[in-house]
Amino acid sequence: MCPYIHIHKLTLPTYGLCIAIAAVVMVVYAMKQAKKRNVLTEDVLIVSAMCAAFALIGAKVMYIFVTYSMAELIELMKKGDFSFMGGSGLVFLGGLLFAIVGAWVGSLVAKQKLVVFEDLIIPIVPVGHAIGRIGCLLAGCCYGKVYDGLFAIHYKNINTGEWSTKGYFPVQPLEALLNCVIAVVLYRKSKKEHKEYFLLLDYLLYYAIMRFGLEFLRGDAERGVYGGISTSQWICMALVLVNVLVRVVAMKKKK
Amino acid sequence: MGVASLVLGIVSVVFAVIPGLPDWLAAILGIVGIILGALGKKKGQKNATAGLVLSIIGTVLGLIFYIACAACVASIF
Question: Count of domains in chain A?
Fold first, then answer.
């Protein structure tokens, strides 16, 4: 749609710009919440930076494993071709799972309990994801299935200036909208008393259910389909299963 | 740690701004700079704030230029 914006002589990729804006919005929110809850903003920066590093690595690793087979990867590396590590292509689920590990490592570096950061960071994660999805829409990636109904999107080839003849389902704006709804629910929950790590569990559950459904509306080629459903849907099912197990164990402990 | 953060911040901004140098390295150096800067600031070290600011700028610029996705839509055509 609009993969680059031009400001005077400067050309900026809109996808990268959206990811950077999302990162800044998330950190600013977490730091504001930290001040309200008497948590050091330096500790929030350490955990956020560690989350960002792990999320980038996780999103790229997941993308590579979804897109290439092991044989293809070995072949490319033998040729000394490391172009698969290039900028385009990140998988959010990989980033999310690695970011949780990053938050744990960050809390160890900051010498704080991980749970301290739960209410500061979790409610804003869906907002960051929504901004990222707007970046996907502008870059023209993660597009929907062929569809000619209401709000169908036509993409423009930046090399030829030609518009796609077919329309595509607006799956990126829909995911952004649903993420905003999740953010509102999580924000309201974060203001109330809740069990430790249950805000994180709630987010993972809502996201997994939403993503599982949205995957049926996606039309981009690099899906990594196994047994009729995509890699992301397999991960979503595993997330829901683990979520339910943790809740059952927590309930039994309470009794 | 404050000095290390300042150095990493400067290097990350240079890597992010100069074309041809790897932007992903700018983002990684910037992130390490942010962690060291924040640790330095907690200990009240000089240069930590400057290192923190430069590392944040380097990370943001590195992210903007690293995550470009211009070719994604090509598969439609």
Answer: 1
Closest listed residue to residue A122, CA positions, set A54, A202, A32, A42: A202
- Locate the DSSP E strands across A75-201: none
Q: Is A221 left (phi over 0), alpha (psi -120 to 50) or beta?
A: alpha
- Match 């698969």 to its residue by tokens: A84
In which residue are the tokens 């950061």 written?
Answer: A117
Q: Is position A16 within any domain?
A: yes
User: Which residue in this structure is represented by tokens 């041809």?
Assistant: B20
ipTM for the complex shown: 0.85
Consecutive H or E run containing A190: helix A171-190
Structural domain boundaries enclosing A123: 4-192
Nearest CB to B35 within list A1, A20, A50: A50
Q: What is the mean pLDDT of each successive set of 10 residues along chain B, which is 77 residues long?
A: 91 88 85 93 88 93 75 50
In a domain, A211, yes or no: no
B18 at the A interface (CB within 8 A)?
Answer: no
* Three-state SS at B70: coil
